[in-house]
Design brief:
Blueprint (H helix, E strand, L loop, with lengths): L2 H4 L21 H18 L7 E2 L2 E2 L7 E6 L3 E7 L8 E6 L2 E8 L16 E8 L10 E5 L2 E7 L2 H5 L9
Antiparallel strand pairs: 1-2, 3-4, 4-9, 5-6, 6-7, 8-9
């Protein structure tokens, strides 16, 4: 097999002019539509969660603040990175097994000459469904160096529900 066989427009028998379209893509408008969609996907894939948040979720599917959730035998630990905020800027709520982190990050300066900023400012809200019965009176939240850590102890009932399943080969 030669390299020419791998190129879709190089596979003619010499009887036909070379075509820029694959066999199933003879419609030039359909091909253009797919290429434009691919270009937009490639461009916006790199933005991730660096765009400002609208209603708690960024315009392209990420959310802020970034969290890490660890599910131990006796407790769930949620750690959220909230750099640039103070303890009084964050509100932590627990309602019907859903942990809500909300607050607001304000700009430190009113810089009217600023041309570009990748920093996030504004209100945020992050809801995390936990899926366990918790000891709500023993929930603990701590804030240190821009990191919020919420420890949620599981109830005795939730701890006893965990069942180890044997893996068979």
């Amino acid at each position: 097999m030669s390299v020419r066989d791998l190129i879709p427009w190089g596979r003619n028998n010499g009887n036909q002019p070379p075509s820029l379209f694959r066999d199933g893509e003879r419609d030039p408008f359909l091909s253009l539509h797919r290429e434009v969609n691919r270009l937009f996907d490639d461009v916006f894939r790199g933005f991730g969660s660096s765009l400002p948040s609208f209603g708690g979720v960024s315009a392209f599917g990420g959310s802020w603040p970034n969290v890490e959730i660890s599910d131990g035998e006796k407790e769930i630990k949620v750690t959220a990175e909230v750099p640039g905020l103070e303890e009084e800027d964050i509100e932590v709520l627990l309602n019907d097994g859903v942990l809500t982190l909300r607050g607001e990050k304000r700009s430190e300066t009113e810089d009217k000459d600023r041309q570009f900023s990748e920093r996030f400012y504004g209100r945020f809200e992050r809801r995390i469904p936990l899926g366990y019965e918790l000891q709500e009176d023993k929930v603990d939240a701590r804030f240190r160096n821009g990191v919020l850590t919420v420890t949620l102890p599981k109830s005795e009932k939730a701890q006893s529900r965990v069942k180890r399943i044997a893996i068979k080969s």
